[in-house]
Specification:
Distance between the termini: 80 Å
Oligomer: single chain
Number of domains: 2
Strand content: 15-25%
Number of helices: 16
CATH superfamily of the largest domain: Periplasmic binding protein-like II
Structural class: alpha/beta
Number of strands: 13
Shape: globular
CATH class of the largest domain: Alpha Beta
CATH architecture of the largest domain: 3-Layer(aba) Sandwich
Length: 329
Amino acid sequence: MKIPATILLAVAATLHAAPSSLLNVSYDVTREFYRDYNEAFVRHWQAEKHAPITIDQSHAGSSKQARAVLDGLQADVVTMNQDTDIQLLADAGLVAADWRTRLPDHAAPYTSTIVFLVRNGNPKGIKDWPDLVKPGVEVIIPSPKTSGNGRYSYLAAWAAAKTAPDGSDAKAREFVGALFKNAPILPPGGRDATNAFVQRGLGDALLTFESEALQIAKVFSPGAYEVVTPASSILAEAPVSVVDRVVDKRGTREPATAYLQYLWSDEGQKLAVKHFFRPRAAALLAANAGIFPPLQLRTVDEIFGGWKEAQKHFQDGGTFDAIYQPAKP
């Protein structure tokens, strides 16, 4: 039987239009996780009888990435490390206003927190936040102006000082000022900070996400570093969203949505644990208590009244600019 030319043309047009790739624009320290996750999702997608698809990745400081998407980078999905980086895109009309409620857990499939990475033997005896401001201690922190990692480090330090027995906002401001006085450089992103500490040998302690610190201590350089978990830190939620304007233009809404939903699957959550992110699955988190020690986790809402207020610390002329004095060359 001869197939009419009109049907052949329609099939050809459909195949040509079928999306064959997605771009995930993410933050600095998720490279390894999304490399594994992308492979798992592609297997799942094709097992569901969909056309083959490839996933491309882009990584840098979270806030820098958000601005790149705002400036035209064609991300199908964004997987950031703080609410404000996606809200920036929502305020510009790139992401739907209801993005937080389209997925479970305020659209954050995994969490982390800020811990300290020190060299083997912990030569400076760093155990908790006050140790970081002692004379002679150098701390490597990503810039809070360009990195969500650095922003969470700042907020965690502020929260620890504010909630101390004699704490207050004034005490927190003083403490954070002393902390950044001990920071010889402010790398632009989390992975840049890791490279400064690990490859260049700078600093006595690296402030970074728990996931990054555990990757270094347990996978990249076992035996060379130790992870110090402070008594309290900040809850770092990592929100995700499709970029509505892009997926509607490219015709990728279905695979982009499925890509994000699969982060909550059993496989997605287990991969999060493999890469040392705290999973949302409560049973899985409890089963891995040996990896994720308990600590007091403060929230941005609790300490700062939400991200809108917290962000004032980092805007031009804000609190961070007022307290940070770069080291003179």
